[in-house]
């Protein structure tokens, strides 16, 4: 069964629900979990306007660290062996799903867990959903956790 679970987090309610499911699966299978946050500053170009892009990038990285700390705390409380990883850049701009799949391959994950409605802003309308991209690009099992709460 599963021994290594890659959990994609982004600080959204859907990612929190995905974390809950990853904990359930990890407890049942004795798996370790790697929580992954992919910081994509490509959103900065959609939001920049008169803002300093460096400040926006710093805010994205801070949000990533916060999401990973929250995930690590819950995993530790559940007694799940885990690591966290903040990837500061996707494999190419806007390619969060490809980056998640590549990390799952690199880390030799047996399962990818992620939420279906994250915080990716206007690009989701243009480029499609991250979870859908992971599902289409990965040859590994993918557990997608849906949030009924609109974000």
TrEMBL record:
UniProt main location, coarse: cytoplasm
Where do the UspA domain residues begin and end?
1-146
Domain of life, per lineage: Bacteria
Q: Where in the cell is it found?
A: Cytoplasm
Is DNA repair among this UniProt entry's keywords? no
Keyword line:
Cytoplasm
- Family under the similarity heading: Belongs to the universal stress protein A family.
| Name this polypeptide is given | Universal stress protein
Q: Which organism is it from?
A: Cupriavidus basilensis
């Amino acid at each position: 069964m599963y021994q290594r679970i890659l959990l994609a987090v982004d600080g959204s309610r859907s990612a929190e629900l995905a974390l809950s499911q990853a904990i359930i699966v990890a407890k049942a299978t004795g798996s370790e979990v790697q929580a992954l946050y992919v910081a994509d500053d490509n959103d900065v170009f959609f939001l920049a306007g008169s803002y300093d892009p460096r400040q926006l990038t710093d805010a994205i990285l801070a949000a990533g660290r916060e999401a990973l700390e929250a995930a690590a705390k819950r995993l530790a409380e559940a007694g799940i062996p885990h690591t966290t990883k903040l990837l500061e850049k996707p494999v190419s701009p806007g390619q969060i799903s490809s980056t998640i799949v590549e990390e799952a391959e690199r880390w030799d994950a047996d399962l990818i867990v992620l939420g279906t409605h994250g915080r990716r802003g206007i690009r989701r309308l243009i480029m499609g959903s991250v979870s859908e991209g992971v599902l289409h690009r990965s040859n590994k099992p993918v557990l997608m956790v849906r949030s009924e709460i609109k974000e």
